[in-house]
Amino acid sequence: MTKTAWTRKDLVGLKDLSREEITLILDTAKSLQEVSTRPVKKVPTLRGRTVANMFFEPSTRTRISFELAEKRLSADTINFSAATSSTVKGESIKDTVRNIESLKVDIIVMRHPASGAPHRLAERLDVSFINAGDGINEHPTQALLDMFTIKEKKGTLEGVKVTFIGDILHSRVARSNIWGLTKMGAKVVVCGPKTLIPPKVEELGVEVIYDLYDAIKDADVINLLRIQMERQSECFFPSIREYANTYQINRKVLEVAKKDVVIMHPGPVNRGIEVSSDVMDGPSSVILDQVTNGLAVRMAVLYLLSGARKKIEG
């Protein structure tokens, strides 16, 4: 395991993390992975610590994964519902969070539709923050679990070619993955309609390929991204049907890909749009492995932040 020590109070993105810090998280997740295979799936690591899950957007995998990770580490957990909170009465997010912080909560896991919301709060408050997705900016733990899964399946991240297909423009998952994978030595390709490729994305160290077949023919990993209709105020392509005809990964398309290509998706999956059912449920798909690995990765992040807090408090 890497000898790098974790010293950060928060995990709000991968943009500012070093290769060594990312390696530390992945190594820690590997060591915690076996906890979920025990007859008693619990360790006392975070006993006496309190974690508040504050989700201002809908979530299934991320919210449940964090809550279960907290319970596996024996933390006390508070689940915050934006729909029934004082924010609907006009209270600011900062005041809401400060009130929760005043209850001596140690860590806040936050998902928010405004890009940068966890970052700004983390700078102003003493409580530790974990970004569970902010607007179209970043989703660090999803990228970490994606990298963990790739390393598990391919043995390394160095030199691995990862192609992202879909709505790159609105994808916080793509952004975090780009920051993380390029630092770890992977080759990243993005593919999708020109209207859904961010301007100057090449400056982040990725290659842009608009033709689907060219984008996947040498890929070791294909990571599919959902068309995020809820984040789009404009029409970026004629129709969902046309998008599926051009960019869907199905068995015919995969004939040009490597035989051992790995198919990934952060979820939720729109079957029949970005991927066909036979591919999603086929031997190349590791989508459910991603969900499983997300638990270990989030346990690792909670564990490392808790240790950093102890040092700060001590």
Task: Report what the structure shows.
This protein is α/β, with parallel strands linked by helices. It has 2 domains: 19-139 and 292-313, 3-Layer(aba) Sandwich (Rossmann fold), CATH 3.40.50; 140-290, Rossmann fold, CATH 3.40.50. 36% of the residues lie in helices and 14% in strands. The protein contains 10 helices and 9 strands. The chain has helices spanning 19-32, 61-72, 93-101, 117-124, 140-154, 172-183, 212-216, 240-247, 277-280, 287-313, and strands spanning 50-55, 76-81, 107-112, 128-134, 161-165, 187-191, 207-208, 221-224, 262-264. The protein has a 5-stranded parallel β-sheet with strand order 7-6-5-8-9. A 4-stranded parallel β-sheet has the order 2-1-3-4, sandwiched between helices. The protein is globular, with a radius of gyration of 19 Å. The model has no long low-confidence stretch (mean pLDDT 93). It holds the Pfam family OTCace_N.
Describe, in short, the structure shown:
The chain has ten helices and nine strands.
Going across the biggest sheet, name each strand in turn.
Answer: 7-6-5-8-9
Overall residue-averaged pLDDT value: 93
Q: Briefly note the structural class of the backbone.
A: alpha/beta
Number of strand elements: 9
User: In sequence order, what are the helices and strands, one letter per element?
Assistant: HEHEHEHEHEHEEHEHEHH
Biggest sheet descriptor: 5 strands, parallel
- Broad shape: globular
The proportion of residues forming helix, as a percent range, comes to 25-40%
Strand share of the residues? 5-15%
CATH architecture verdict of the largest domain: 3-Layer(aba) Sandwich
Q: Uncertain regions: pLDDT < 50 for 5+ in a row?
A: none
Helix tally? Answer: 10
The structural domain count equals 2
Radius of gyration: 19 Å
- Spell out the CATH superfamily of the largest domain: Aspartate/ornithine carbamoyltransferase
CATH topology of the largest domain: Rossmann fold
Just give the CATH class of the largest domain.
Answer: Alpha Beta
Compute the separation of the termini in Å.
25 Å
